[in-house]
Amino acid sequence: AQSVTQLDSQVPVFEEAPVELRCNYSSSVSVYLFWYVQYPNQGLQLLLKYLSGSTLVKGINGFEAEFNKSQTSFHLRKPSVHISDTAEYFCAVSAPIYNQGGKLIFGQGTELSVKP
Amino acid sequence: AAGVIQSPRHLIKEKRETATLKCYPIPRHDTVYWYQQGPGQDPQFLISFYEKMQSDKGSIPDRFSAQQFSDYHSELNMSSLELGDSALYFCASSLGSGHYEQYFGPGTRLTVT
């Protein structure tokens, strides 16, 4: 079974400052890793994913994340945030479809609040 | 680009009533996932279908059932509704085998009174 822990429930930050949202996972099998963003009263939008290959992945809206297998982490970063980045961010893992059907296991979410 | 469509967007039901939620995946996507997100909670996996067959099952109550039809749309049927069923229900679709990105619909907000 897999599990995901997002280490910060809330992250307040000033506009144009850098931000890091932390995510750790545990799994007995190889997993795929994702970050989703959820704006108020909206669905989940995929920010970026790690399936294999380069451990540094770039996503939409200037976000990037680094997969660290030894530390079982997949932290999300952005060098300069905007007010419009205020949202809930979810880290998620899935096991291969042939193994466990590909369902997503989500972390508890991190509320990013960008202040002017 | 076409996205996942869910209907209705909002639904209000009373306790012990039934509800049916519909999901229309992105064209050519053959896999559908259902998730439940309670207030202030992370989404929880309910059930999934691949090529019209149930592929995985999560923490879905026995009062709930779902299926995927020949046109790949899916319906989640919920009976004997309870107050605790009030939540946002998401459907996500993917291309299935070999494709792991799931694309989420806008969700159906179910309120049970």
Explain how this protein is built:
The complex is a heterodimer of chains A (116) and B (113). With 116 residues, chain A is mainly β. Chain A has one domain: Immunoglobulin-like. Chain A has 1 helix and 12 strands. Chain A is globular, with a radius of gyration of 14 Å. The N and C termini of chain B lie far apart (37 Å). Chain B has one domain: Immunoglobulin-like (Sandwich), CATH 2.60.40.10. In chain B, a hairpin with an 8-residue loop joins strand 9 and strand 10. Chain B is 0% helix and 50% strand. Chain B has 113 residues and is an all-beta fold. In chain B, the strands form 2 sheets. In chain B, strands 2, 4, 5, 6, 9, 10 and 11 form a 7-stranded mixed sheet that branches. A 4-stranded antiparallel sheet of chain B has the order 1-3-8-7, with no helix packed on it. Chain B has no helices and 11 strands. The chains are: A mainly beta (116), B mainly beta (113).
Annotate the secondary structure layout:
The complex is a heterodimer of chains A (about 120) and B (about 110).
Chain A: E1 3-6, E2 10-14, E3 19-21, E4 23-26, E5 32-38, E6 44-50, E7 56-58, E8 64-68, E9 73-78, E10 87-94, H1 97-100, E11 105-106, E12 110-115
Parallel strand pairs in A: 2-12
Antiparallel strand pairs in A: 1-4, 3-9, 5-6, 5-10, 7-8, 8-9, 10-11, 10-12
Chain B: E1 5-7, E2 10-13, E3 19-24, E4 31-37, E5 44-50, E6 53-57, E7 64-68, E8 74-78, E9 87-94, E10 103-104, E11 108-112
Parallel strand pairs in B: 2-11
Antiparallel strand pairs in B: 1-3, 3-8, 4-5, 4-9, 5-6, 7-8, 9-10, 9-11
* Overall tally of structural domains of chain A: 1
Name the beta content range of chain A.
over 45%
**Structural class by SSE content of chain B:** mainly beta
Give a count of the beta strands of chain A, DSSP E runs of length 2 or more: 12
User: Which homologous superfamily in CATH is the superfamily of chain B?
Assistant: Immunoglobulins
Mean pLDDT of chain A: 92
Share of helical residues of chain A: under 10%
What's the story with the biggest beta sheet of chain A?
Answer: 6 strands, mixed
Task: Give the terminus-to-terminus CA distance of chain B.
Answer: 37 Å
Round the Cα radius of gyration of chain B to an integer and report it. 13 Å
Determine the fraction of residues in helical runs of chain B and give it as a percent range.
under 10%
How many structural domains in the coordinates of chain B?
1
Give me the number of helical elements of chain B: 0
Provide the succession of SSEs of chain A. EEEEEEEEEEHEE
Give the averaged pLDDT of chain B, no decimals.
Answer: 93
Kindly provide the radius of gyration of chain A, computed on alpha-carbon positions and rounded to a whole number of angstroms.
14 Å
Helix and strand string of chain B, N-terminal first? EEEEEEEEEEE
Strand content of chain B: over 45%
